[in-house]
Amino acid sequence: MELTAARSTFYGDIGHWADRTPVHEAASLGRALQLKQLIEAGASVNIVSVDNFTPLHDACIQAHPNIESVKLLVDHGASINPSLTALTASPLHEACIRGNPDCVQLMIDKGALLEAFDIYFGTPLHAACAKAHFDCALLLLNAGARVNATKFHETALHHAARAERVDLVELLVEFGGDVNITDNLGHKPRDYTKLESPASLCLLHYESNPLSLQQLCRIVLRTLATVFSLNLTLYRSTKAEMEVGTARPYFFGDIGFWAERTEVHKAAYQGQVSELQSLIQSGASVNIVAVDSITPLHEAAARGQTQCVRLLLDAGAQVDARNVDGSTPLCEACSIGNFECVRLLLEYGAKVNPTLTSRTTSPLHEACMGGNADCVRLVIAKGASLEAYDLYYGTPLHVACVNRHLECVKVLLNAGVRVNAARLHETPLHHAAKSNNVDMIELLVEFGANIYARDKYDRKPVDYTRPDTPSAHCLQLYESGPLSLQQLSRIALRMVLGTRAVDVT
């Protein structure tokens, strides 16, 4: 411990690693006075927590109406554009997700990067549109955000269409949003709207009628005003890099060359077995990766196309290839709960415990998200780690409880998973209480869940239930009386057996 305390570890240019500090908590709760006292006492405003969050992230996530905490942090040197990792979005992203226009405007005024890219959301404009925050989107567009910026070919307009927000659709088109652009599935924004809905009719109108000369002039002027100066600096700094970059192919691991979606990808995704077989016989590579590192095997597994999966594997497809998020085809098959695909991939040697990165969950996590108890049972039987830990979700039991998959919870508990495993002090019972699922609460307690466990906000599971609901009454009953001797004996026996409980049963 003395050695650890004496050695500081740095993370980029943000500061020291630490667990959540009083500064984080004060920022998260909007306690400006407490935050000011901590800063004046010498606390760092750029210290990062174990999950890579700075106090400014926390302040923007909560985004209290007066945003005093945000202003205080910025005024005392908080980094507006901290170094990003696969785990973190920028403070501007968080403000857009939360939907506080004042916070977004402050971030923009202080120089926040409008095109900061997050692997999950894309740009801040993507985030604002995905959460249907019109005012935030308007601020970003007026500040010069690129309206057609893409995250794997998906634009902000795709998100607005999904949200069925006519006002957002009209705003984005007014700023030059492309109504005919297609994402990596070949879908235009209108393809994500409900038939005959106002958003669908709006997009159909834009598709069938050209913009007026006045609208086109406004779009051109905005583009020139906000992009022209950027282009000059970017051209000077990247011209040499572009010339070098085009002269050499870029490899991703040992999978192959980067490429756009190919005919092999499309055939695998759509389950066109004969077409896929014909392509393979004609010499097409089964291991070619798309721009997001997805192989045809990923596509087939993600859609449950079992025949295509077998065909690709027989042709030499790499069973444990990873996409840009680090997910393997087995993860994809588990996520949709396709038992046959999961079994087939395992038969061909897919790793049930692939090395995890900060972006990836394990196949067991994905199976618990998909909710197929048979898949969960199968990967456990093949040796899946019950305590595999994901930074966002925690353990597979956390995931099953969050997604309310009672049967998956039963399988995990019977296999010997730790019922009181915590993610930042939050247990699976907290999740069951949040979802007001009485059956799940009773099951977890039956396996020894601690009803008095407190999360990072010092809240017990009962504190997350609604008053006078069955879940609240259930937890209050457990708190008011001890478990029976029979229940305690069963819990003790399960704790002793652990993962051997499966063999016994």
UniProtKB/TrEMBL annotation:
The keyword Repeat applies. It comes from the Eukaryota. SUPFAM superfamilies: Ankyrin repeat (SSF48403). PROSITE patterns: ANK_REP_REGION (PS50297), ANK_REPEAT (PS50088). ANK repeats lie at residues 18-50, 51-81, 87-119, 123-152, 152-184, 259-291, 292-324, 325-353, 359-391, 392-424, 424-456. The keyword Membrane does not apply. Keywords: ANK repeat, Repeat. Belongs to the ankyrin SOCS box (ASB) family. PANTHER family: ANKYRIN REPEAT AND SOCS BOX CONTAINING 13, SOWAH (DROSOPHILA) HOMOLOG. This is Ankyrin repeat and SOCS box protein 13.
